[in-house]
Amino acid sequence: MFNRPRRNRKSAAIRNMVQENWLSVNDLIYPLFLIDGKNKKSEIKSMPGINRLSADLLLKEIEACLKLGLNTFCVFPAIEDKLKDKKATEGLNKKGLYPSTIKLIKKNFPEAVIMTDVAMDPYSSDGHDGLVKDGKILNDETLEILAKMALVQAEAGADIIGPSDMMDGRVGFIREALDENGFTDVSIMSYTAKYASAFYGPFRDALDSAPKFGDKKTYQMNPANSKEAILEGELDFTEGADFLMVKPALSYLDVIKILKDNFTLPIAAYNVSGEYAMVKAAGAKGWIDEKRVRDEILLSMKRAGADIILTYFAKEFAQSVK
Ligand code: PBG
What we know:
By secondary structure, the chain is of the alpha/beta class. The protein is built from eleven helices and twelve strands.
């Protein structure tokens, strides 16, 4: 036998030397949930360890993460029901909770990278990502609202805009609006291949943003498809996206690989709420070694080709390597 692959596994040092993929805090984005109020912290039952935080506590959380070397955050607002309407008006309110908190974060921590979410669902009384008329989700009318939303967030200081709505043409529409208003430096991380997934359940609990009727299948992708992700990638690339994202991640590793192989842009994977909840639940029962499973899952996303991972595990991973 001339080839004995085991020789490259014989010690930790050799294994490390030939290791192909590594996890690093530099690659992680930590999603955070914002609520109104002062000194308020409310647990998300289906996401152990993750809380909705008022702006003051969110600042403290970000400060703690920065000390761990975790620099990038994606903030999602939980909006009170009474502020929701069909047109997601609160999403365009420059003085609203979301933009004022982004401003506050960037004022306190200019070095932190803040990604924001563009979609109507947190503000929509219909719980959909687009404008609803006669039970249908309108595409082009929604684009106008999304672009205004993006401008409010860019003005507040967002570094990266994350359109998570899956309307056609939104990346180009938002890019144009940003550029026309002088925000040429604001990046777009497009939710390029976002699937109509059951893995978003705990997130919708967190924001109380589940659709009030129907589902999201007329805009989010069919979990059975992968070639379609290339079409979405081509559109986002030509429309000016800076990053392409696949979401969810774990059941879509092949899609991450497809985008990585077909595009030169950095690829992000969103390790979503349901993926987090499953690991936490099995870990709490003692059925799996939670930390090892966590790292193995995150590594599988890197191996598939993800340059960046959005994950609720970001802080605890940062703590574990510190
Ligand atoms: C909605 C949005 C969703 C998530 C991020 N943005 C849910 C949805 O599309 O219904 C899910 C994130 C997660 O599950 O962690 N625009």
